[in-house]
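The following record pairs a protein chain with its ligand, adenosine-5'-diphosphate.
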Amino acid sequence: MTDARIELLLDDITSLKVDAIVNAANTQLKGGGGVDGAIHKAAGPILYEECSKIIEEKGSCSVGEAVLTSAGNLPCKHIIHTVGPIWTGGTNNEEKLLARAYFNSLLLAKEKKIKTVAFPNISTGVYGFPKQRAAEIAVQEVKNFLDMNASIEKVIFVCFEEANYLIYKNILGM
Ligand code: ADP
């Protein structure tokens, strides 16, 4: 059964007024195309500065890891940047790493007392992860986390493409 705290939207994640949106970032937190580019563009240059500071301190952000910044000009309060795996055929631990990106994002949210979180479809754009399998992993990982943690009040899967929206609708039984 689907957790009542899970919601599904076909929308632009930068428009959401949640506590935190998750960015599908790269290991250098440099911005780029896709959702990452859209978030940086809408948040403004302060986000790039915060990301650069994190990279100065840490060197890089590993695949599966998650870090927090403020949200600049966005209507949300925080951005959780996580790095999804690049799909290279499925034999390089991609499934576990994708699950870890969702888990670590939620763990960070919990630690920071963030109650509402919106996820894009991590790794399913330029990184090439098969959409159906990525959605199954995302839903499973989020459900597992919510089962164990009462502090998160809402998780929204935000799809930007209709194909992904229909996949999630089916998996979530909505
Ligand atoms: P990755 O490099 O992790 O594959 P992409 O940004 O290329 O990241 O794609 C991840 C997902 O984000 C894709 O499903 C893409 O359709 C979606 N996406 C792109 N722009 C937005 C946006 N503004 N809001 C929500 N999702 C978006």
